Amino acid sequence: MENWRRNLEELARAGMLRSLRTIEGVQGPRVRLDGREVLLLCSNNYLGLAGHPLLARAAAAASLDLGTGSGASRLVSGSLALHEELEERIAAFKGSEAALVFNSGYAANTGILQGLAGPEDIIFSDALNHASIIDGCRLSRARTLVYPHRDVDALETLMKREWPQRRGRWFIVTDGVFSMDGDMAPLPALADLKEHYDALLMVDDAHGTGVLGATGRGSAEALGCLHRIDLHMGTLGKALGGFGAFLAAPRVVVDILVNRSRPFIFSTSLPPAVLAAAIAAFELVGGEEGRHRRATLQAKREIFAAPLRAAGLDLCGSTTQIVPILTGSPHPTMAAAAALLEKGIFLQGIRPPTVSEGRCRLRATIMSDHDPQELAQAAATIIEVLHASPSPDPGSGPH
Ligand SMILES: *Cc1c(COP(=O)(O)O)cnc(C)c1O
């Protein structure tokens, strides 16, 4: 215990301590944080569906009808018709043969990679992939070769090097939209490579699902290569406003995962309310309201990002609703986040290990329900706070 207390004190000294806060209210543009109303700029509820009455009603009806729990893993007490309906919907959405629902994005990434890859195999993984992909690579015991962020040439060099002694399966795994940078994977070029080197391409579209592409099918739709992705992973807890995750893939992949994927096999399945909300969310995302919300989100993202860019701030190459503002090292980052909170703006300072040393940032996320004036005002306040910061930190100093 004493040891852990010391560890926590060391983290606090380094500006690296993490702690929890209490909020009240739905994940809308404004919430109450520790009793005070603030502008919420750190929710992944991009399309406002987490507070949407259609989803809430679907969830409530499913609970009243079928109860609150699924009782066991699907291999033990069976699938609900709702699991199957949701999976059919997801497969159709991604244009895949089949789909499998997981309990969270974290469970999906660990379970997909552990279930499909083994010690003979190689996983080529982008340097900025989500932590759950990194953990999935570890659990799979495959050799993992990390390529520099979005660097297709470096990836090809690695693949060429490995080609002569190839034994097992090869996977290329990437976030569609990178969660901390808000930039996108070069999916068409990755698809070229996977075809040339006979690999499988897996895209984690936690932040693209519902948001990107004309019909919300995600990053690959936006980049015109939806049908070239082998393994579409996506989540239900961000733009889709609920909870859970999925893989859309060929039938044989889903069948193997049902037999091998430990987070799928050894965990109680999602309950009726969550499944019904997800089905309602896909209905909404695919319709006119979804299209409208996506367009609104893009416009509001620009209202927020344009002045930041014009002020010379480094937005880490973001082109999406995730807008990071590079600040450098932990202390100035956390000081800026605290100063912003003081002014009623709630966003997170992001530090290692979530991002690499010297790449700390404020990470803002835009929602379709945000008020444009409030976004413009928030951008102005961020500029003011960062320029007023006593030690502008390029992140290059020792630390
Ligand atoms: C949030 C996220 C996950 C995890 O999804 P959860 O459903 O929250 O567990 C996986 N991958 C990426 C890129 C994410 O941003």
Q: What would you say the CATH architecture of the largest domain is?
A: 3-Layer(aba) Sandwich
Give me the CATH superfamily of the largest domain: Type I PLP-dependent aspartate aminotransferase-like (Major domain)
Helix content: 40-55%
Number of helices, counting only DSSP H or I runs of 4 residues or more? 15
Q: What is the strand content? A: 15-25%
Count of discrete structural domains: 2
Main pleated sheet = 7 strands, mixed
Rg from alpha-carbon coordinates: 21 Å
Separation of termini?
Answer: 28 Å
The third-level CATH topology of the largest domain is: Aspartate Aminotransferase, domain 2
Question: What's the count of strands?
Answer: 14
Q: For the largest beta sheet, what order do the strands appear in spatially?
A: 4-10-9-8-7-5-6
What is the N-to-C succession of helices and strands? HEEEHHHEHEHEHEHEHEEHHHHEHEEEH
Keywords:
399 residues, EC 2.3.1.47, disordered C terminus, Aminotrans_II_pyridoxalP_BS, biotin biosynthesis, 8-amino-7-oxononanoate synthase activity, alpha/beta, Aspartate Aminotransferase, domain 1, 15 helices, four-stranded mixed beta sheet, binds pyridoxal-5'-phosphate
